[in-house]
Amino acid sequence: MPIEDLTLDVNVLISHNKSNIPCEDKHRNLMKAFESLVFLALDDAGHIKQLYVNRLGSNSLATKWLASLASKSRIHLFPLGRIPKPLKVKFDETGFHWADDKYVRLAMMTPDKHWVTEDTGINASHRKLISDHVGVTTHDTQSACDLLGI
Description:
By secondary structure, the protein is an alpha/beta fold.
């Protein structure tokens, strides 16, 4: 069954947005996939988009890419979910970076429940907790490309 929506961590966009180094093929391929193969998941209140703009700047290549996706109707909007209390407790115990909770809250509300992140603070323990508690599969850029067959 094809994947329809992906939640994308800002760190993936930062990797793609660096103009002073050549972009890796995996980043280029993933960004291109959003033009026709998969939709970008964003929250309907605009929190994730604001995170992107805050980290990347309003005139960055990545924010222009977002505007292009919006103009082509390649963005699906979802409400942010709530992290279940048992998962909150486990996150606190394992040193989860709470700045990333919005991505989990978004991904858990999408039908496909996939989150692409290059954040080194998301370790194997966090990935397993997220999968076990809310059913979200966490990918790096390469495994997201593999998932999409690109």
